């Protein structure tokens, strides 16, 4: 049985970040099952919610610009 990996992003399909994640998924999809939420903001969540969702293991992989981490990193 393949392990499920949940990935979250906050940008649409035209984003370089999104395209990179899609490439990553395509390269290892023979070994894993993926649930990729391309843009959490379409569900009303803030992009910054990806930090908490990752910390609480609601998603396994996420990406954000470094400016989102300024409030939580020393």
**Gyration radius, rounded:** 13 Å
- Numbering strands along the chain, what is their spatial order in the largest sheet? 2-1-3
Task: State the domain count.
Answer: 1
Written as H for each helix and E for each strand, in order along the chain, the element string is EHEHE
Tell me, what's the shape?
Answer: globular
Distance between the termini: 40 Å
The main sheet comes to: 3 strands, parallel
How helix-rich are the residues, as a percent range?
A: 25-40%
> How confident overall, as mean pLDDT?
93
- The secondary structure category is alpha/beta
- Helix tally equals 2
Low-confidence stretches: none
Q: Kindly state the number of beta strands.
A: 3
Tell me the fraction of residues in β-strands, as a range.
15-25%
Throw out a few tags for this protein.
74 residues, alpha/beta, three-stranded parallel beta sheet, globular
Structure in a nutshell:
With 74 residues, the protein is α/β, with parallel strands linked by helices. It contains 2 helices and 3 strands, in the order βαβαβ. It has one domain.
Note down, in words, how this protein is organized.
It is built from two helices and three strands; from the N terminus they run βαβαβ. It has one domain (3-69). The N and C termini lie far apart (40 Å). With 74 residues, it is an alpha/beta fold. Helix content is 27%, strand content 19%. The model has no long low-confidence stretch (mean pLDDT 93).
């Amino acid at each position: 049985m393949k392990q499920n990996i949940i990935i979250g992003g906050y940008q649409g399909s035209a984003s370089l970040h999104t395209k990179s994640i899609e490439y990553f998924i395509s390269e290892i999809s023979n070994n894993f099952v993926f649930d990729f939420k391309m843009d959490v903001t379409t569900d009303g969540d803030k992009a910054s919610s990806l930090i908490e969702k990752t910390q609480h293991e609601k998603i396994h992989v996420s990406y954000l610009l470094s400016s989102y981490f300024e409030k939580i990193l020393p």
